[in-house]
Specification:
The protein is mainly α. It is built from seven helices and three strands, in the order ααααααβαββ. It has a three-stranded antiparallel beta sheet with strand order 1-3-2. The longest helix is centred in the middle third of the chain and has 27 residues, at 95-121. Belongs to the ScpA family. Participates in chromosomal partition during cell division. May act via the formation of a condensin-like complex containing Smc and ScpB that pull DNA away from mid-cell into both cell halves. One of its GO terms (biological process) is chromosome segregation. This is Segregation and condensation protein A.
Length: 257
């Protein structure tokens, strides 16, 4: 092969992938491709593929024709003419091929980055959802069922979604059940009347705050520190602080985050 490196037969994702491999093997600058060398090695590789596999994709032959056309344009002498050259035609016949290779290289690098993230994600294991123990009973008004609480949560989540601005700055929120329990107890201790669940939230709550606050209310109800009331199926959820000193602890340090 006149001193050229031997190209081993292997599978490539397409002709552009093969060209990038040849350019990297020959340590060429992608902006200054030696078309004569690349075309010769490309045709040699294509011939090897035909010997091993007869069903070579037609796109490889199309690229071979393009390479030979570019090679022919580079070998032809430049005409000495006073006729103005068409500005739409690139000055370098390799320009279009270089642009295709650069775009393909960007997509290939992005695919490799996503693949690496997928491999890293496989190292994490998510705990499956756990059923609520049968021994846990919520302190709610008679007639209120878990589906009613779920309906109230869905309605609040829809309100939070509609309240989101069209454009917003993305930043990490830090809401924990323990912190929300403390905030709720401080809010309820200041009044003797029941407080609507919506009043425990800020004016424009984010989804993380709504969900965490709802879980904090359920945890406080489980500990019998608050009582949940609802006049009807679609009525607002009311939270009332159980002021029973000496019987129920208001310490939330042992609660789950």
């Amino acid at each position: 092969m006149n001193g050229q490196p031997l190209i081993q037969v292997s599978d490539f994702e397409g002709p552009l992938d093969l060209l990038l491999h040849l350019i990297k093997t020959n340590e060429m600058d992608i902006y200054d491709i030696r078309i004569s060398t690349i075309t010769s090695q490309y045709l040699t590789y294509l011939h090897q593929m035909q010997l091993v596999r007869l069903d070579v994709a037609g796109e490889y032959f199309v690229m071979a024709a393009n390479l030979m056309a570019i090679k022919a344009k580079l070998l032809l002498p430049k005409p000495q003419s006073v006729v103005p050259v068409d500005e739409d035609e690139p000055a370098d016949p390799r320009e279009e091929l270089v642009n295709q290779l650069l775009e393909y290289q960007r997509y290939k690098q992005a695919a490799q980055a996503l693949k690496q993230r997928a491999l890293e994600r496989q190292q994490h294991f998510t705990r499956p959802a756990m059923a609520v123990p049968e021994s846990v009973e919520l302190t709610v008004a008679p007639g209120i069922k878990p589906v009613d609480l779920q309906t109230a949560l869905v309605r609040l989540m829809q309100r939070a979604t509609l309240a989101k601005p069209v454009t917003q700055s993305v930043h990490q929120e830090h809401f924990t059940i323990k912190r929300q329990m403390t905030t709720i107890l401080q809010r309820l201790k200041g009044t003797t009347a029941p407080v609507a669940f919506e009043q425990l939230l800020v004016t424009h709550p984010v989804m993380e705050e709504v969900v965490t606050t709802f879980l904090a209310v359920l945890e406080l109800a489980r500990q019998r520190q608050v009582q949940l009331q609802q006049a009807g199926r679609l009525a607002p959820l009311q939270v009332n602080f159980l002021q029973m000193e000496g019987r129920f602890s208001t310490d939330v340090t042992s609660s789950t985050d």
